[in-house]
Amino acid sequence: MKQQEILKIESLKKSYESGQPVLKDVFFTLEKGEVVVVVGPSGCGKSTFLRCINMLEPIDSGTLQFKDQVIDRNSRDVYEIRQKIGMVFQSYDLFPHKTIMGNILLAPLKVQNRDKKEVTAEAEKLLERVGLLDKRDAYPRQLSGGQKQRVAIVRALMMHPEILLLDEITAALDPEMVREVLQVVLELAKDGMTMVIVTHEMEFAKAVADRVLFMDQGVIVEESRPEEFFTSPKTDRAKQFLNTFHYEAI
């Protein structure tokens, strides 16, 4: 049975100011509860693709539609839509002068004008879920990279997003810290969170993805289920990309 289509992208094009194309005629749909993992070589347009979905980057042409709303960076309801499409970056972007709880509560209180008692209780519950309730009064400088990234995920979840975009969230972490962050994402996937994830962690992609997109030079070269992509890629370019990871593993 077909799920509810939550995001639809048609003929998306994006270029740098120099005129060099980043995304070339990208078509993409996302269903509610689906986890799509985007893989590909560095510089192929993966992160720009996520930033365009969240309207952090203006597009040159094409259409982005969230449910029944066309996403327009200049529309009056752009901030309302952006709250429904959360994003977590590899650099955490936590405010250093605020405590962990202060970072988490800021947007729900200031942007959504929610009740402080209610959001504090929710924040404590989420921090406990990711194993960081005891760090609620600590400052970002007192946390490891893995802990800061888990806080960043909690901060995004506090806005009650309907789609969560994760952009290379383990890229800046030591190998020992990667697993603790990916475990949180796996649990979110099991709970039915709709996600688009850019990652270089191939084993993680196999475990979490409902669908894999392989991008190269600004286009979606291949799209398939993970068991098909990682065992029998259809294109020579995807085979070459996966062989690189196989070589590195050896």
What's the quaternary structure here? single chain
Summarize the biggest pleated sheet. 6 strands, mixed
Low-confidence stretches: none
Quantity of strands, as a count: 10
In round numbers, the mean pLDDT is 92
- Quickly count the helices: 9
The structure class reads alpha/beta
| Percentage of residues assigned to helices | 25-40%
Which percent range describes the beta-strand content? 15-25%
Shape from CA axes?
A: globular
Query: Which series of helices and strands comes N to C?
Result: EEEHEEHEHHHEHEHEEHH
Strand order of the largest sheet: 6-7-8-3-9-10
- What is the CA-based Rg, rounded? 18 Å
Q: Can you describe this structure?
A:
Helix content is 38%, strand content 24%. The strands form two sheets. A six-stranded mixed sheet has the order 6-7-8-3-9-10, sandwiched between helices. It is of the alpha/beta class and 250 residues long. It has nine helices and ten strands. α3 crosses α4 and α5 packs parallel to α6.
List keywords for this structure.
single chain, 250 residues, alpha/beta, six-stranded mixed sheet, four-stranded antiparallel sheet, 9 helices, 10 strands
Brief overview, please?
With 250 residues, the chain is α/β, with parallel strands linked by helices. It has helices at residues 46-53, 78-83, 100-110, 116-129, 145-157, 175-190, 202-208, 226-231, 236-249, and strands at residues 5-15, 21-31, 35-39, 61-66, 69-70, 85-88, 163-167, 195-198, 211-216, 219-224. Helices cover 38% and strands 24% of the residues.
